[in-house]
Recover the amino acids of this structure.
């Protein structure tokens, strides 16, 4: 039976239902009232946490770490919810969560932090995360973290992972046009940047939450502070898209008339 | 002066993806504007043969890495091949178009070359010889223009930045780049592709129209009942007759995950919006969709937009669609299907 050491990397992101307004002060862009915005664990990374927990459940002796770079106070709030969903050990880094930062600096810090996790066996390492964050949304941090950890098998846009009888990993990655590529990897170490996966959000389990919180609070207390270098990126403008359209409201036509209008529009070059 | 390198891979049939050719046209224009050299490189099983379709793409020899091990997208081999090309060309700016193959490897290549990378680039401007790129943050919600001093600077373009470069067959100077990986570094075998069959193939990136289905299709209708089977039949017929690509809102996809009866051919891959895709199509028709900005992100790159909805104040459509039809989507789609069948 295979067992894995699964490290899930995730930041936090503003709740998608919130209105986001960029502001630029003298240094770098940020979100207006960022400290006040409710945050969530980054959505695709959260899926990867659920997949990690499921993999660990099905492969006894496996262990899950959640390495999270986020403002300590925000992370603390987010953990109240996430801790009830899956068993994991938190490794916290106290860092800004806004997306206007360079991913290489984040990757370097993540790689350094992962290397320093005691008892982590690199020969059993599966590095999980979202294939893109909901903030920087560049899809580069996890890839570079894997590269800095010298992991030469990487998969991005993963929707499915199956562990075969001989311990190999069968991975489905998204391709263009709704297709998936099927690859068979000899085993860990490997990087898996998850897309949506197949698992529903697990129900809250207060018992798991209480067990997790015993470790999470001390981990938050000793979260190392990290600041991004200011000179990696220079922003010349940051703005909301200006694309408000003059919507024509059609209220008084019957379905036949509307259908004719739409078909004519569809056929127009 | 900048030294540009444009990276391509060929498809299994030896052709190049439209998106890659669009990127090539854009790279040529950019290099000409800045006044820098443009090098072009091709990676794949038969890269030399494919490169002969790129006559006129560059004044320099086309760099190729080829061999059976480069036939399929695989991180270990692709990263090694692209790194070898970058080391040979020694560019200051590396350009590529965001095919899934390039997307899943280029950041690691940038890391190996001690460079910097920006992805999802939708525009590049040149000001006094200085390059700056436009890209989106917070999943297409905030637009930024930014520049970097670090080189090599890797730029991964979105599609549609320029009309595709026209294939020209002719004599092309080729420079082969050696890339040999030790056998123990290739630990992954590509077994093949899983393609949705027949009518379940609802994602069509080249379609003229994106049809977005919202959760309203599964709600109670005027008779107080839900009609998911009728909705599925109407939508499937429309997709077949109209050749449209199917997008869906998160709420509709989530309903399926919760075990509720929804459209049987719908998967997470259809999801558009903040946690889904942001496809590019000339036209978009949204039906029974509700919601605000995060969901509308899904059709940020749809040029002409129309919507059918019972709510005249729907946040999805007001200010975001060109035309909003306040009507019953079931009735309208039935009529549309009749017209498309004629």
């Amino acid at each position: 039976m295979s067992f894995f050491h699964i490290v899930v990397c995730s930041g936090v992101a503003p709740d998608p239902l919130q209105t986001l307004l960029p502001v630029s002060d003298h240094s770098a862009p940020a979100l207006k009232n960022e400290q006040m915005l409710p945050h969530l664990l980054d959505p695709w990374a959260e899926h990867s946490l659920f997949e990690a927990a499921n993999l660990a459940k099905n492969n006894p002796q496996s262990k899950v770490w959640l390495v999270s770079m986020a403002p300590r106070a925000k992370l603390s709030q987010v953990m109240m919810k996430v801790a009830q969903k899956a068993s994991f050990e938190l490794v916290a880094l106290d860092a800004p969560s806004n997306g206007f930062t360079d991913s290489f600096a984040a990757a370097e810090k993540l790689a350094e932090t992962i290397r320093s996790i005691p008892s982590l066996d690199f020969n059993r390492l599966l590095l999980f995360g979202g294939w893109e964050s909901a903030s920087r949304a560049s899809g580069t941090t996890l890839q570079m973290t894997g590269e800095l950890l010298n992991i030469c098998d990487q998969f991005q846009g993963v929707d499915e992972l199956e562990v075969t009888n001989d311990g190999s990993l069968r991975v489905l990655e998204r391709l263009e046009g709704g297709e998936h590529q099927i690859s068979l990897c000899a085993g860990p170490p490997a990087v898996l940047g998850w897309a949506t996966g197949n698992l529903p959000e697990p129900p809250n389990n207060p018992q798991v939450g209480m067990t997790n919180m015993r470790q999470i609070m001390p981990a938050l207390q000793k979260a190392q502070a990290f600041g991004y270098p200011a000179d990696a990126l220079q922003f010349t403008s940051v703005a909301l898209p200006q694309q408000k359209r003059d919507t024509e409201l059609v209220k008084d036509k019957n379905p036949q008339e509307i259908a004719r209008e739409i078909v004519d529009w569809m056929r127009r070059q | 002066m900048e030294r540009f390198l444009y990276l391509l891979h060929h498809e299994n049939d030896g052709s190049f993806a439209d998106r890659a050719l669009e990127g090539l046209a854009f790279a040529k224009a950019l290099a000409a504007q800045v006044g820098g050299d443009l090098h072009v490189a091709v990676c794949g099983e038969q890269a030399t043969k494919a490169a002969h379709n790129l006559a006129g793409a560059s004044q320099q020899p086309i760099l190729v890495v080829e061999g059976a091990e480069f036939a399929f997208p695989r991180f270990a081999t692709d990263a090694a091949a692209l790194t070898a090309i970058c080391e040979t060309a020694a560019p200051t700016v590396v350009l590529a178009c965001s095919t899934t193959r390039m997307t899943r490897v280029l950041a690691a290549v940038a890391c190996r070359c001690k460079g910097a990378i920006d992805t999802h680039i939708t525009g590049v401007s040149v000001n006094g010889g200085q390059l700056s790129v436009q890209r989106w943050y917070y999943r297409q919600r905030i637009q930024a223009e930014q520049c970097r001093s670090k080189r090599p600077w890797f730029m991964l373009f979105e599609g549609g930045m320029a009309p595709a470069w026209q294939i020209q067959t002719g004599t092309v100077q080729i420079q082969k780049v050696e890339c040999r990986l030790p056998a123990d570094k290739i630990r992954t075998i590509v077994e093949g592709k899983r393609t949705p069959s027949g009518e379940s193939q609802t994602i069509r990136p080249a379609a003229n129209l994106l049809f977005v289905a919202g959760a309203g299709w599964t709600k109670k209708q005027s008779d107080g009942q839900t009609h998911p089977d009728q909705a599925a039949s109407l939508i499937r017929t429309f997709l077949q007759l109209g050749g449209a690509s199917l997008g869906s809102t998160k709420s509709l996809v989530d309903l399926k995950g919760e075990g509720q009866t929804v459209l049987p051919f719908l998967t997470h891959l259809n999801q558009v919006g903040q946690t889904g895709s942001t496809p590019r199509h000339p036209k978009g028709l949204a039906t029974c969709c509700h919601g605000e900005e995060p969901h509308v992100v899904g059709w940020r790159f749809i040029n002409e937009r129309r919507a059918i909805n019972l709510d005249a104040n729907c946040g999805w459509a007001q200010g975001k669609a060109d035309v909003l039809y306040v009507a019953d989507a079931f009735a309208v789609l039935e009529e549309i299907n009749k017209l498309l069948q004629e």
The helical segments of chain A are 43-58, 72-82, 103-115, 141-148, 206-221, 255-267. The longest helix of chain A spans residues 43-58. Residues 36 and 74 of chain A are 10 Å apart (CA to CA). Chain A has one domain: 5-225.
